[in-house]
Amino acid sequence: MKTHSFTIVIYKEEDMYIAECPEVGTVAQG
């Protein structure tokens, strides 16, 4: 099984956190 390593950037914007994964182009808010 091949494992992938991704860089995840998490930062706080006002009252929510943003998680961004540049390699995949995914942005999650919560």
Describe the structure concisely:
With 30 residues, the protein is mostly beta strands. The protein is built from no helices and three strands.
Structural features, described:
The protein is mainly β and 30 residues long. It has one domain. The chain has no helices and three strands. A three-stranded antiparallel beta sheet has the order 1-2-3, with no helix packed on it. It is elongated and about 40 Å long.
Please compute the radius of gyration using only Cα atoms.
11 Å
Count of domains: 1
Q: What is the number of helices?
A: 0
Rounded to the nearest angstrom, the distance between the terminal CA atoms is 31 Å
- List SSEs in N-to-C order: EEE
State the helicity in percent bands: under 10%
What portion of the residues fall into strands of 2 or more residues? over 45%
Largest sheet: 3 strands, antiparallel
- Low-confidence segments: none
What structural class should be given to the helix and strand makeup?
A: mainly beta
Total number of β-strand segments?
Answer: 3
Strand order of the largest sheet: 1-2-3
> What is the 3D form?
elongated
Average pLDDT taken over every residue: 81
